[in-house]
Design a protein that fits this description.
Blueprint: H1 2-5, H2 9-28, H3 40-47, H4 56-62, H5 64-76, E1 85-91, H6 99-112, E2 127-131, H7 135-147, E3 152-153, H8 165-168, E4 180-183, H9 186-195, E5 200-205
Parallel strand pairs: 1-2, 1-5, 2-4, 3-4
């Protein structure tokens, strides 16, 4: 994409690549097989739209606060009802970290990207990985969530056990409404992605540059 559109890596990754994913998604949901086909020229033309999609120019022109509002509107404004395995990768700035803010964000993600009602046959909740956070701090966060009555799992049956993707991918019942699935490290994330039996969506929020490539 850098070569075709004669652009920088940032634009290729955050602009054209996002448009490409959206175009592929739109094609994949067509009921007619022939409607799922597209020529190379049409595909490139369709993803070369003059829209602002979370890029550096938007931040420069509108400012950081407006950029964050736009992120919230596009990602957290509505409940997503499709039963995908969604992974939220959050990088914490240790210089400005605030436990209360992080817990609020975790609960917001859980609320917007979980479906646990009795009428829902295929219940789901988000996976969350937090980068740059100490083990003792994530334990404190889990303690708080437990005291608040929030149900979560992290892939380990008991202390000292090996990580179990089967445990993480278990069906969620109405009687046991798991709201969050924590991933404790990158290796557990890589493992669960290999075993995922549903469409995977990864939302990565990083400070300077991406820290995970699937």
């Amino acid at each position: 994409m850098e070569r075709i559109f004669n652009c920088e890596r940032f634009e290729a990754e955050n602009y054209y690549y996002n448009n490409a994913l959206n175009e592929i998604k739109n094609l994949s949901i067509q009921s007619n097989v022939n409607d799922r086909k597209v020529s190379k020229s049409d595909f490139l033309r369709n993803i070369n739209k003059k829209e602002i999609i979370f890029n550096e120019w938007f931040v420069e022109i509108k400012g950081k606060n407006q950029h964050l509002k736009n992120l919230k509107k596009n990602i957290f404004s509505a409940l997503n009802v499709e039963s995908f395995n969604r992974f939220f990768l959050l990088e914490v700035d240790i210089n400005s970290y605030d436990r209360a803010d992080l817990i609020e964000l975790i609960l917001l993600i859980s609320k917007k990207y979980s479906k646990l009602t009795k009428r829902t046959p295929d219940r789901f909740c988000p996976f969350i990985f937090i980068k740059n956070i100490e083990e003792k701090e994530i334990i404190e966060i889990k303690k708080y969530l437990t005291s608040a009555g929030r149900k979560f799992i992290d892939g380990y049956y008991f202390q000292g056990a090996d990580f179990s993707p089967r445990f993480m991918l278990q069906a969620i019942s109405y009687e046991n409404p798991i709201e969050i699935k924590f991933l404790n490290n990158i290796e557990d994330l890589k493992t669960i992605l290999k075993f995922s039996d549903k469409m995977v969506c990864i939302y990565q929020f990083y400070i300077d540059e991406p820290f995970f490539y699937s």
